Automatic annotation (TrEMBL):
Name this protein carries in UniProt: YbbR-like domain-containing protein
Record keywords, A-Z: Membrane, Transmembrane, Transmembrane helix
Transmembrane helix recorded as keyword: yes
Transmembrane segments: 21-38
Gene3D superfamilies on file: 2.170.120.30, YbbR-like domain
């Protein structure tokens, strides 16, 4: 009795001739695809207009509608990427490539065919474009310049301090938004500059904090802050006291006649400090009823001196 052998697909594919046929088939298929992609095709492609160098106050409206259509001839290889993204980007400069009207930019498409050809590259042969003119609508927002103030938590190493004031690389920043919101803002604060044990000059970039503002943009969004750090030392000078706003019909005698003023100064200027650089006064107009002492205040000091402190807090007096 003859036994019929059962067909096994695994054994079939293990057959050498089948493997060779499959390999040749795949190679032929690849060559077919390459051949097709090497052919020239004519196709209409979408170009999304990306307007650059636009003023901060301008807000482009309905950006999704800013397309032009280019009828091109190109190899299949060049058109293949459009399967994954159905448009290419066309960069248009708002300063040189368009004319600005009251509420729209006018882009003369036909006049700028060379711009389109340059950005499409040699892989595309531009046949025609539509429309002839593209109108890009925009709205204008309110804007103004405001100063920047620094929020800081800076701790210096012992014997060091900031030599002068912190400075920014720009005097002001532009805020842009609705008129009602822009009018409320007089300055913009930075995010906190946090530094510890500082001994060297400071040069940092800090972002601007507009988290408390609604629908407001700021340009630029960060500033550079700098400050010179130097070695400081403490000095003490004895300064005579003057009385201001004393009534002509009142004569007083006060004690002491001088006070010691402690100050913190850049080591470079320490030897240049003189007592005459300071002035201490007691304002008689600050007296309250039954008060028998005056309060001394430093009303003059060199600009480079910091942390002035008067050791004597009260000046006793009697009326004569």
């Amino acid at each position: 009795m003859t036994t019929k052998k059962k067909f096994n697909i695994r054994d079939y594919f293990k057959n050498r001739s089948v493997k060779q046929f499959s390999l040749f088939f795949m190679i032929a298929f690849v060559f077919l695809i390459i051949s097709k992609l090497s052919n020239d095709y004519k196709q209409t492609i979408k170009l999304k207009v990306n307007l650059i160098n636009v003023e901060n106050e301008i807000l482009i409206e309905n950006d999704s509608a800013n397309f032009i259509y280019a009828y091109v001839e190109a190899k299949g290889f060049s058109l293949l990427p459009l399967i994954f993204q159905n448009y290419k980007e066309l960069v248009v400069d708002s300063k040189t490539d368009v004319s600005k009207k009251s509420d729209y930019f006018k882009f003369d498409v036909q006049k700028h065919k060379f711009l389109i050809e340059n950005q499409l590259s040699n892989a595309y042969n531009l046949i025609s474009v539509l429309p002839d003119t593209l109108l890009i609508a925009y709205a204008t927002r309110a804007s103004k310049l405001v100063p920047v103030s620094l929020k800081k938590e800076v701790n210096y190493a012992v014997g060091y301090d900031l030599k002068e004031n912190f400075t920014f690389n720009i005097d002001s920043v532009k805020i842009v938004g609705a008129t009602s919101e822009v009018n409320k803002i007089d300055s913009v604060v930075t995010e906190a500059l946090i530094m510890n044990d500082v001994k060297n000059d400071i040069l940092n970039t800090v972002k601007l904090d507009i988290s408390s503002f609604e629908n407001i943009e700021v340009f630029p969004k960060e500033v550079k802050v700098s400050g010179k750090v130097a070695r400081f030392t403490e000095g003490i000078v004895e300064v005579p006291i003057t009385i201001s706003n004393q009534p002509q019909d009142i004569i007083i005698n006060y004690f002491p006649k001088t006070v010691n003023v402690a100050y913190y100064v850049d080591l470079e200027y320490y030897n240049a400090i003189k007592a005459s650089d300071f002035k201490v006064a007691c304002d008689y107009a600050d007296l309250v009823a039954q008060q028998t002492y005056l309060v001394p205040k430093v009303i003059k000091k060199p600009d480079f001196v910091k942390h002035v402190n008067i050791k004597q807090k009260r000046i006793e007096f009697i009326k004569l």
